[in-house]
Fold:
Amino acid sequence: MRELSNASLTSLPSEVDAPRYDRTALRGGIVHFGVGHFHRSHQAMYLDELMRRGQSMDWAVHGVGVRPADEGTRNRLAAQDHLYTLTVKEPDGSRRNRVIGSLLSAGYSPQDPTGVVERIADAATRVVSLTITEGGYGIDQVTGEFTGDSAPIRADLDADVPNTTPFGLVLQAMRLRRDRGLGGLTVMSCDNIQENGTVSRAAFLGFAGMKDPELARWMEQEVSFPNSMVDRVTPATVDADRAYLERTFGYRDRWPVTAEPFHQWVLEDAFVAGRPPLEDVGVDIVGDVEPYELMKLRLANGTHQALCYFGFLLGHRYVHEAITDPDVQALLLRYVDEEAVPTLKPIAGVAFRAYGRTVVARFANPEIQDPLTRICADTSDRIPKFLLPVVTAQLADGGPVGVCAAVVAAWARYAEGTDEQGRPIDVVDPRRDSLMAAARRNGDAPTAFIEDRSLFGTLAESPRFVEAYVEALRLIRTGGVRAALRQIVAAPSR
Structure:
């Protein structure tokens, strides 16, 4: 069995689209934190496309992992010259396969923090990009302020040499760049967060202000934080993905990635040290990302949240199963048309309802095999960003909130930790204990779950939302999820 490597690229079957550019000519211009599945199917793919056109050979990526799980990623990719296969799964069962060559390295910071700092401080590095998940920024979800309220960030704030988080490592590198007269760079978040550049700015400058106020003032002038919107469904790699490449094409790839055909990237043109010409490969470079990100967060990410708890409680285990359930789909279309779309800012040439139906069609792709547990995980980081802004906007305008309230009620029922057959539900969330404790009170204190101000703000004080939420929770708990879902969908807007 041949191994994927630089040496084997020219001998891969013609059905695998391998890079033909000279990878020895690549030079790093980007340091990326979080070389996970999404980064490899999205940002790295766009850069690879530029390189296939003979462009941006000095914009290759040096990856960095900070979590224990990232050590395995580093080892797998290093064994194959940091190449990997991206398999695009079409709804009809066909597949397109290409090898991505834009990743130069995948380091692991706990074993070489000095090397990571020097890489960021290198004059060739002009962008630090991030996919560190919604909960990785240490930002208060209600106020938007940096709190550093996580064990890794707190450890870095307390340490003389902060080596644990991207914030600490970047801070050290910025000190070196300042002292060496190199100037700043751009920190580019690619996470699914509304105003992710603004969030990044608050996190990095907030961290710097707590550690080194003088350096924070320098960073404020020298570092830019563009907002962006990114979209592509990218499930976790499983053994079947590796077996497919071995069986079909006769080569071993230790860390392939799969994705849906759709991909989108909208990026604010705010770079202080240059950028690759991403517009040449389909990235929308715009002055204001907000209308696009609201569309994506509320229609795509919000739809994910709207389907996952009902879907799981109904016995489905994959996104495509849940979204093709007629009762779930009816709920989703009401969410899109009646509650989410009215909160969006117009975008020239974009029909929001049609976009929402494109989302439903994408999520119904049976080839992706995206588990509902992935969407149900870390809800306390997701619902406040994807769904609750819809509620807030609708309450302010006097619009309906009944579907959103029902989704929150389904989350509360899910957080009870057992399904309708009494089988345990593994609730995966950074606030697991407090969420489950509140959910255990659903029967005798039906508003307990939504009284956590750090998650829900003042929604528990909104009579309209509380009425809709309590009624949905009552229907779910007394009549069963299927019957409740049908009653909620059939009810007038509220």
